[in-house]
Amino acid sequence: MIRYVSSFFLVLLVILSSCNDKSRSPLEIDIYNPEGDSLGTATLSEQAEGVKIKLNITGLEPGFHAIHIHEFPKCEGPDFKSAGNHFNPDSKLHGLMHPEGAHVGDMPNVEAAEDGKIDGEVTVEKATLADDKYSLLKGEGTSLVIHESQDNGMSQPAGDAGARVACGKITLAEDDKDQSPTNPAETGPEEEEK
Ligand SMILES: [Cu+2]
To answer: Does any domain span residue 181?
Structure first.
């Protein structure tokens, strides 16, 4: 009987913890262009090596684009400056090729096909969807940003990747479309992406 009861609780525990995981991983988010139109989705899932992001996006210029995790879950067009700087919990320099890099939010460039679609995967190494320093859901969350140009992997603060052309909020919060616009002062006098 005791064995029966304890295995019952074990099963219950497994069910409960998998329910809990489900809300965080996988996590599907919507990606928007600067006009606020949906470009598709990104699905995040936590893996041993980091957070895998499955991209299913359309409407981009063909070619390579920088893709980063930015520090705030705010995607206000047309410039998406509301997303803040890169997610950088280790306070390193930017760039996967930089000797003093990289930001945790730095990732290899993604390529949009001739029809403007990105259908592929990237991984945010070291990141989690848990409740820790490296979590993309830390605090209110973070954001996924795609730039018009590619990241050169070296120059500060953001690899000369140009304008932010797509943004998706990585958050567990409900849609906050009705919230008042962000106070620009909130992002502070931090370095601007070029
Ligand atoms: Cu960026």
So the answer is: no
